[in-house]
Amino acid sequence: MSAVSKILIGIIAFEHLYILWVEMFAWTTVGKKMFKSLPEHLFESTKGLAANQGLYNGFLAAGLIWSILIGDALWASQISTFFLGCVVTAGVYGGLTASKSILIKQASPALIVLVITLILK
């Protein structure tokens, strides 16, 4: 896998680590600033739900980081393709069901990195 792909995948992984942090540890503080469409009174009662979502974002980040660390180029490409595809799928679903901004903030960057990674393969 190319260095460019690894850097871009790392950026996507970092984004998901940040989302993990917000949803698991800063839901009632930073989360309120990020998710302005939710009424403020819901943040405390949805901490567990948000933490669960954060955990899933952590799994996505872990898979992307794993793909960067794999020495075999073909295997690394296959793992990165799978996890980037998962991010795109989650972003599209979130964009359709929760907020259209998720399409821009999550799905689009991952799709761009997926295409670049496949081209540079």
Descriptive report:
This protein has one domain. 82% of the residues lie in helices and 0% in strands. Helix 1 runs antiparallel to helix 4, helix 1 packs antiparallel against helix 6 and helix 5 runs antiparallel to helix 6. The chain is mostly helical and 121 residues long. The radius of gyration is 15 Å and the shape is elongated. The chain contains six helices and no strands. The N and C termini lie close together (6 Å).
| DSSP summary: helix tally | 6
Which stretches of 5+ consecutive residues score pLDDT under 50?
A: none
Distance N to C terminus:
6 Å
Number of domains: 1
Mean pLDDT: 95
Broad structural category = mainly alpha
Topology:
Elements: H1 3-25, H2 30-34, H3 42-45, H4 47-69, H5 73-97, H6 101-119
Helix pairs in contact: 1-4, 1-6, 4-5, 5-6
Brief account:
82% of the residues lie in helices and 0% in strands. With 121 residues, the chain is mostly helical.
